Predict the structure of NADPH-adrenodoxin reductase.
Amino acid sequence: MRACVLPVATTLRTASRTVRHFAASACLPRDKNVAVVGGGAAGFYAAARLLAKTKNVNVDVFEQLPTPYGLVRFGVAPDHPEVKNCTTKFDQVSGSPRVRYFGNVQVGSQQLGLDRLCSAYDGVVLSYGASEDRRLGIPGEDGENGRVGVIPARRFVAWYNGLPEAQGLRVDLESYDKVVIVGHGNVALDCARILLTDPADLATTDITANALETLRNSKVRHVEMVGRRGPLQVAFTTKELREMTKIPDMDFICDRELVAAECSKWAEWLDASRSLKRMMDLLMKHTVGEGRRQKKSFTLSFLKSPVEVVYDQPGAEESAEAPPQRIRFEVNRLEGAVDAARAVGTGAFVDIPCGMVLRSIGYVSTPLAGAPFNKRRKIIPNIAGRVTDDSGELVSGLYAAGWVKRGPVGVIATTMQDAYRTADAVIMDISNGHIGNDSDTGRSRDAVDQMLDSSGVLETCVTNAQWKRLDAHETEAGIKTGKSREKVTDIDRMLSIIRSE
Ligand SMILES: Cc1cc2nc3c(=O)[nH]c(=O)nc-3n(C[C@H](O)[C@H](O)[C@H](O)COP(=O)(O)OP(=O)(O)OC[C@H]3O[C@@H](n4cnc5c(N)ncnc54)[C@H](O)[C@@H]3O)c2cc1C
């Protein structure tokens, strides 16, 4: 503990004059400084809560990309613009005089290690999301003979949403007419919907110009979404499924007998789950039999686990009639109670011919240099947002929020609640004196700025005002092409727009 230096001088500004004020007998509480790592939903909601519930906490948000909002910009589907309304709230947060946005700054890099943040700030909230995805772990997944293999849905989503690092993805939608998606979640449904929607209906959204052009030339007419378990175990939600049923000129196909059999087997349990019941009703109502009548089809397949991507002989003619690959599945049966059903292989196999295969079986977080990480659960270990080390001890001043705290599940509303809880833990620790001790002057705002200056962050970062310049540029470019926004998809170009205008 450092001794408090008296007298403390503070400058109070009034409307007419500046008064020098000396507190002769007590230390004035100093402002507390909190760093947030990751400018996605969790980071901004944590900052919002800290602003709303305190008067003397400053928040610095560090984001590795020049642009803020994380998956709200690069994950949420372009035809779901209403979901992105939360950015209005995030903008209010960044507009506060107590918040600073530092874009283009990767925490954990050589420039700015986590240790430097921890020694300068009273608290550090890790909310850096989940940047990888789960693999299938099957032969052929990584491609062969020049074939791309299985593409992560994460990358496909990032490609159509303009994430700079995903723009090099080879997306060929012209050499075949069928795509298989492994996984039964909302991200899988997003991909299926984007592939089957008339591109004219996406033309006013913020989908990238390149993705829109690729979709306009697409020959893909059929998408099959395959899951290892049954209809009562799907992870997607009714709202997203209903959207699929509304795509015009498209057959919606699934195994009605299986759905009916599962519903009748688990009728009592289903009675208690209204949302699942609605979903099953939707499936029964909209499913047409096999035998395609429309030009397009969406098939929901159950009880199949992928075991291998099988490539045709090298030199086989690739065309819409001769799909470049097949994906082999083992047929499963279910064992156990409906809410914990396990898929067990039957030893029977089916091949589904297709062009592109997307895997969509979940995102995963990766470790950040210097921070504890639970390798098995792939999250930052924490107790209600307070980070713990390998031995389960609390790490003073370190917190986690969002997907990196609880795993990559949950919508923005869930992430908001979760980030609020973490911010509340920070506030409680400040008020209990566990962090942000007033005598610890080494953690002042000046000390923070010195650290940011000496690490070069102040020189290379993108500020909120600069991001707003890029934002205006994208919006204006969108107006010219009749879109809500034309995203800039290259970091150098982003920086040149920010710095030239
Ligand atoms: C494809 C997809 C579609 C979705 N659609 C919806 C939807 O329609 N509706 C809905 O409610 N929810 C949707 N969600 C869920 C929602 O996006 C998440 O709940 C939410 O984004 C999680 O927020 P987060 O802040 O934890 O992670 P993120 O949004 O990923 O934010 C993390 C941020 O941290 C940054 N970062 C990473 N590492 C570092 C570092 N070392 N230094 C600095 N910054 C770093 C990243 O660049 C990123 O900006 C969707 C999710 C996905 C994947």
